[in-house]
Design brief:
Residues 169-192 are annotated as: Disordered. By secondary structure, the protein is α+β, with helices and mostly antiparallel strands. It has one domain. Helix content is 41%, strand content 27%. The protein has helices spanning 13-32, 38-53, 59-99, 101-107, and strands at residues 112-113, 118-124, 127-137, 141-149, 152-160, 163-166, 180-186, 196-202. The strands form 2 sheets. Strands 1, 2, 3, 4, 5 and 6 form a 6-stranded antiparallel beta sheet that branches. Strands 7-8 form a two-stranded antiparallel ribbon.
Length: 205
């Protein structure tokens, strides 16, 4: 089941004029052999569809299609960017789960992951939030529940046979330079078995 939050898509005067200039740019790139961006490739496909549909249409319909095309282009590109973000979140979650030693002992190695079974996205005042659910399968199977804000995973939970695992949202080699406090233990003399505890504060880098 897929659920995508709906948004009101508004176009500014500049966005209404943009397809005309975009088409010139794409044509120029094609002439000199420069590769098109993914957005430009999608706009090319939209142009082809509109040209085919309105090939024998009355002038009024063709005029309406030119006004309607920017809205379609914006919606299609927005949906493509959302799907790209979902894929990146899914890939990141797979990597984090595969690294988690606690889950490895329960699920085993060679994990398989399903595509998102449920997904929800919203964009409020420029801040994006998303939730995903998908399965992870090893020697047993579990359900993954992911929450994100602005493209970064904020919470990653895995349920396996009624047990809940809270997976860290950052790989070990990325946790640095954030600052913080903590306590660590040092074994000064390996022979006496005594430890000394010390508080530390990490400076921001």
């Amino acid at each position: 089941m897929f659920r995508i939050a709906t948004r009101r898509v508004l176009l500014s005067p500049a966005e209404i004029r943009r397809p005309f200039f975009s088409k010139i740019t794409r044509s120029a790139k094609k002439m000199i052999g420069v590769e098109l961006t993914e957005t430009e490739k999608r706009d090319n496909q939209i142009d082809k569809v509109f040209d085919q549909v309105t090939a024998n249409a009355p002038p009024g319909v063709k005029l309406f299609s030119k006004l309607f095309k920017p809205l379609v282009s914006k919606f299609v590109n927005m949906a493509a960017e959302n799907q790209k973000e979902i894929q990146l979140l899914h890939d990141s979650a797979r990597d984090l789960i595969s690294r988690d030693s606690g889950l490895s002992s329960v699920l085993g190695a060679d994990l398989q992951f399903s595509p998102p079974l449920q997904q929800f996205q919203s964009n409020v005042n420029g801040r994006t939030e998303a939730t995903l659910q998908f399965q992870v399968i090893g020697k047993t199977q579990g359900m993954v529940m992911l929450s994100s804000r602005d493209g970064s995973i904020s919470q990653l939970l895995v349920e396996v046979a009624g047990r809940h695992f809270d997976v860290g949202t950052k790989p070990p080699d990325s946790i640095k330079g954030k600052g913080g406090t903590g306590t660590t233990r040092f074994d000064i003399d390996d022979d006496d078995g005594e430890f000394m505890e010390a508080d530390f504060k990490e400076k921001d880098k």
